[in-house]
Design brief:
The protein is mainly alpha-helical. It has helices spanning about 1-45, 45-50, 65-95, 100-115, 120-135, 145-170, 175-180, 185-195, 200-215, 220-225, 240-245, 255-285, and strands at about 55, 60-65.
Length: about 290
């Protein structure tokens, strides 16, 4: 009997280990492929001209991705500035204040937001949000960075709310009871004790939100205007992701244009990795 249990345990252990190795293999494979595909164009164009160039015009051999990089940074930061407080407050309400019925309704709505396809966000944004921005600010076109930030804010909310509320629910009740026993109010306890104890979960929520905002393409291409301008709040812009999506279909195979798009993908990949590493380091230091 013991030999049989050991055999079964060994099978499960081997299966789980193989799945872990396979996940690592996927990451390594994608990384290697992007490096092999993206480095040649950067080397041919020149790293400085490619990364700091302000003009993207493949027809004239100009491949500057600085507008795409800055647009992605501004769009992501804008979405976080609006979405993070809104998501945290919603998570705090669900975890500490909401009743069973209201909490269940709000959680269902948040889960529904997470399940809506990106193209639906883009379609609604194009039909409702873009004309609203155009009329409100008297613009020639409402497809702007502002519209993209609003859409990204809505899209990252479910990730921030779900992960943060789960982290807040996991905070030991003894922490809160001890704070209340020392004379702190409920609000002081929740924001100064519970939220502090759940900071690692909140950091994870931020990482997921940043990843979603940086990696989104379909919804953004429908509301941002998809023009390679330097970023401005009321101007049509193009993100790193939308640059790849909009041009890869007609870039000639083997051309410098196509290789440059792979280089854009490499820049996006490195950018996401750096953001995740920095946020993880900050979260670990705060935890220590």
């Amino acid at each position: 009997m013991n030999n049989k249990k050991s055999f079964v345990e060994a099978i499960f252990h081997g299966t789980f280990f193989a799945c872990g190795i396979l996940s690592i293999g996927f990451v390594v494979g994608i990384t290697v492929y992007l490096i092999i595909s993206g480095i040649p164009a950067i080397a041919e164009i020149g790293p400085v001209e490619f990364l700091l160039g302000q003009v993207w015009n493949p027809g004239k051999g100009q491949f500057g991705v600085l507008p795409f990089i800055l647009t992605s940074v501004y769009g992501t930061l804008g979405a976080l500035v609006v979405g993070l407080p809104l998501g945290l407050f919603t998570a705090m309400f669900l975890s500490k204040y909401a009743g069973k019925k209201s909490g269940r309704i709000i959680r269902s709505a948040v889960e529904l937001l997470a399940g809506i396809p990106s193209v639906v966000y883009g379609l609604v944004g194009m039909i409702v949000l873009v004309p609203a921005v155009q009329g409100a600010f008297n613009l020639s076109s409402g497809a702007t960075l502002l519209a993209a930030i609003v859409v990204l804010t809505i899209m990252i909310l479910p990730y921030i709310v779900n992960v943060s509320s789960t982290a807040l629910d996991a905070v030991p009740k003894e922490y809160e009871e001890g704070s209340l026993a020392l004379g702190a109010t409920n609000t002081e306890t929740y924001f100064k004790v519970s939220l502090h104890a759940a900071r690692s979960g909140v950091a994870t929520a931020i990482i997921q939100g940043v990843g979603r905002a940086l990696g989104e393409a379909m919804a953004i291409i429908m509301v941002a205007g998809n023009v390679a301008n330097m970023p401005a709040l009321f101007e049509s812009v193009r993100f790193l992701t939308t640059a790849i999506v909009s041009e890869m279909s007609y870039a000639s195979y083997g051309s410098l244009h196509r290789e440059a798009l792979f280089s854009v993908g490499l820049v996006l990949f490195v950018f996401i990795v750096l953001v995740n590493v920095v946020l993880n380091i900050i979260a670990r230091r705060k935890e220590q």
